[in-house]
Amino acid sequence: MDATDVSLIITVRNRAELLPLTLSHLELQSYPAAHFELLIVNLASTDSTQEVLDRYVAGAPVRSRSILAENANRAQARNQAVQKAKGRWVLFLDDHLLAGPGLVESHVRAQERHGGSAAIVGAIRHHPQIAANTLTRDYSVFRGDGFLKGQPLSFIDWRAWNLSLPRVAVSETGGFDESFLHSGLEDVELAWRLEAQGVRGFYGDDATAYLWCPVTQDDERCRYYAEGYSLRMLLDKTHADVIQNRLLRPYQGRLIGPERVLVSIYRRLCGALAPDTGCFRFMFRRTLIHSFLKGYEDAAAGNPPSICGD
């Protein structure tokens, strides 16, 4: 058996219709298939996702395994995959992204340039063939701008959307904190612990994954609300000023009465505007920030999470 350099990990839920395209892009990697593996964790899907995975694993040209993580949150699911992984590095990829043909190879080469013990943050770009008016997952609030190749990145930028890490370091650090019951920011907490232990992060601009998957406005608002709700726990665990400065302070003060009214108007208007217009982007971003802050506000007040903060 050839050595496994990379274990690529994806968590999925109810993705039966879209999984074939995601998986097909992983068959087109420039890196030799004998040297990487794919672990897909099914988060208790209620559609035919597991059947799609079973068929794929049975005949995939890439060594693949599916893991059924019933009653598990995303942190627990990722930890299960890390425990089963055989690669020197683990590469986490969001299920809303398509892997570019050089994704795995670019992560490996970047790891080698940095001694094999780094966090490599890959690029996220819009797929060149996606329609301009397609609403895709918004990562912008949580990604720093102006990443420079070769320059160290703060742990807050090591989001597990397109991220490779040394498997042993993840395991020895204890993996993702499973007390984050509401998915969101558990990857930042792990990054904080890894950086404290000497792991350094770098941007790999040629390790590209592509935005392509349509989303709904409600789904995005729910995702941002969950991240905001997790922010309170993250701050309690880390007390890191960089988290306050990046994720909270720039947006505080936007939950005042007039802003709440405006956000309600923005939501209605966004339903009538095309996503490729400047007006839509401005208003939709404000609704996402509002959902994020409302999640934080609810967690800080000790309230149970609501549906998208509504």
Task: Name its key features.
Spore Coat Polysaccharide Biosynthesis Protein SpsA, Chain A; 40% helix; 10 helices; nine-stranded mixed beta sheet; alpha/beta; 2 domains; single chain; 310 residues
List the helices and strands and how they pair.
Elements: E1 6-12, H1 19-26, E2 36-42, H2 49-59, E3 63-68, H3 74-84, E4 89-93, E5 97-99, H4 103-113, E6 119-126, E7 152-153, E8 162-166, H5 167-172, H6 186-196, E9 201-211, H7 217-238, H8 241-248, H9 257-270, H10 278-300
Helix pairs in contact: 6-7, 7-10, 9-10
Shape: globular
CATH superfamily of the largest domain: Spore Coat Polysaccharide Biosynthesis Protein SpsA, Chain A
The N- and C-terminal alpha carbons lie at a distance of 53 Å
For the record, the CATH class of the largest domain is Alpha Beta
Query: What does the average pLDDT come to?
Result: 91
Describe this structure in words.
- This protein is α/β, with parallel strands linked by helices and 310 residues long.
- It has two domains: 6-211, Spore Coat Polysaccharide Biosynthesis Protein SpsA, Chain A (Alpha-Beta Complex); 217-300, no CATH class.
- The protein is 40% helix and 17% strand.
- It is built from ten helices and nine strands.
- It has helices spanning 19-26, 49-59, 74-84, 103-113, 167-172, 186-196, 217-238, 241-248, 257-270, 278-300, and strands at 6-12, 36-42, 63-68, 89-93, 97-99, 119-126, 152-153, 162-166, 201-211.
- Strands 1, 2, 3, 4, 5, 6, 7, 8 and 9 form a nine-stranded mixed sheet that branches.
- Helix 2 (49-59) links the parallel strand 2 (36-42) and strand 3 (63-68).
- Helix 7 (217-238) crosses helix 10 and helix 9 (257-270) packs across helix 10 (278-300).
